[in-house]
Amino acid sequence: MNNLGSLSRYIGLLVAGAAMLLAGCAAAPNKDDPFEPWNRTMYDVHQAVDGTIVKPIAQAYVTATPELIRTGISNFFGNIDDLFTGINNMLEGRGDQAGDDFGRVLLNSTFGMGGILDLASMMGITKDKKDFGITFGKWGAPQGPYFFVPLFGPTTLRDGTGTVVRIFLSPIGYINEIPVRNTLYGVGYLDTRAQALSAESVLDTAAIDRYRFLRNAYLKNRRYQVYDGKPPPEEDEDDATSAPAVPAPAPPIK
Amino acid sequence: MLRTMIKTLWLLLFAAPLVYAQEAPDALVKRIAEETLTTIRSDKDLQTGNPGKVKQLIESKLVPNFDTGRMTALAMGRNWRAATPDQQSQLTEQFKTLLIRTYSNALTNYRDNTMSYKPLRANPGDTEVVVRTEVTRPGQAPVPIDYSMEKTPDGWKAYDVIVAGVSLVTNYRDEFNDAIKSSGVDGLIKTLTDKNRGPVPK
Fold this sequence. Notes:
Chain A contains ten helices and three strands; from the N terminus they run H-H-H-H-H-H-E-E-H-H-H-H-E. Chain A is mainly α. Chain A has a two-stranded antiparallel ribbon with strand order 1-2. In chain A, strand 1 and strand 2 (153-156) form a beta hairpin. In chain A, helix 3 (67-91) packs antiparallel against helix 4, helix 3 (67-91) crosses helix 8 and helix 6 packs across helix 7 (157-169). The radius of gyration of chain A is 19 Å and the shape is globular.
């Protein structure tokens, strides 16, 4: 999924801010999700709006557009993602990884025709995915409360702040021709939404309570990313029955 | 060249019977994953999501390599001991069905995936290991998928799948816990059964 900044997301984040004020006194059963009642309402709003308008458009887009073209569009926005991945890897002090990311952008932007072809992947320069939320987390910023923002999806105060930063820095925002800029925002949003379709149907099959399943998965995944894939164990009331931790490192068996 | 041949011979002589007796966990994951991907790539019906065929593939290929009993017990957490043996077997059956349905839905998207396998970090006597893999889809950053595996008399079996840090079993624990709190173990069994009877979401 690319994190293209779009107006609707920006509005979504403003809504999130308002949510904090409105829901400040709600009961707090989950420490990461103090505004759960508000968020659940927002989730229902999202399901209604997305289900009747956005999702059908995304499905129609997938059906009507040849895969080759969709891939090109995804690659175009993916190329902008790579730029921000590079910036964030740099901010995290991972210079060599950032070098790879910028190398990808350079290659794909030029020989890859503005990012439409992902030549870098074909040449074996692996794509990475980083964003400001992860960087802030690595710098020690707490994730803050969880929010479900209609038409945007799951986020936290920290990750949402990261998204706002990204929106202000996005190269698309610097395009002066407003119709072009808005078209790019729209297509980018559609591309992101279309890419989420298959994951969404898996979620629908898997979850008993979709809201909670998504929230828990989102928070775990973000934590995992902030800790570079090695998160410290969390407090878990079911520790006695849970799986043993990862075995102590031993020499690789070849 | 000669060195490699001698090494191979040694391996054949000494390691082969052991491997035959019990396939190493990482080798098992790799074999199953590659066989499954090959099957999907060569079968149009699977790519378009023919439900019967997909289910058959999952049941014959994947399910035997999972310890669904342990998965259910882990997802239940401390509630597992509160359940009667009959409830436990019902839960296991329903959870297994739910996982099969979930995988069926996901499997058709796997055609363009490629897998890579990380070297296994384990001691020779270990009975619990984590096999690390990475799935790459075109145009996407690789997604790490780890399999928690245990040694059983029947060979190695997976009891949890961790996708990009999200443990399948732990993610269900909250769901199960809550359902049990509001309507008891039987309530959870009913919820799962109802969900499994419903149509697979598109």
